[in-house]
Amino acid sequence: MTDATTQPAQAEIEDGLEAFAQAMRVVEALLFASAQPLPAEELARCVPAGIDIGQVLARLTALYEPRGVNLRAVAGAYAFRTAPDLGYLLAAEAEPPRKLSRAALEVLAIIAYHQPVTRAEIEEIRGVATAKGTLDILIEAGWVRLRGRRRSPGRPVTFGTTPGFLDHFGLGRIDDLPGLEELKGSGFIEGRLTRDLAMPVPDDDPDLRADEDPLGDLFTPLDENG
Asked: Would you say domain 102-225 falls under CATH 1.10.10.10?
């Protein structure tokens, strides 16, 4: 015989399970409908009060892990992505992959790891001049952005990566980037880099640093100050 005092507790548990299930449905629908990854904070505002959004996302991640689409952390947010082993099925429908020159790949890697960084600093690390067009290509791709201006003579532009960079390369956070030895082993970086190069811990914090000022005049040519 069920104790009458346990009935309210049982009802509370059932209500909690129902609310959690509804939260999963809401989050699932929002992620499927969104063209961009959604941060957990934004998703949390759309679910019933008291629901732990982290648990909802963890449950959905596990639920979709064996399926054709997976829930992935992308650039600090969440999005559904085609399962890696099924990507070939969509190859015919996808846009042709953007092909970057070796120089552009090296510049992108330096910006990713050393940001905020100026063009002069990129050239110092690489040991060769960097064409303005190389930076333009990376900016056009949506992987690199103009951050600010260095508080130094000439006030050169500083560059950093974008959330689109993380999304394209399947990175949840900037510190998911591989280490220097992994990059060299994959052939991503050639021997033009200085032998004593130390790979810093990457940091894409969007806030300006103490030695950066806002961009201000956006019409200053990059080849003069960037």
From this structure: yes
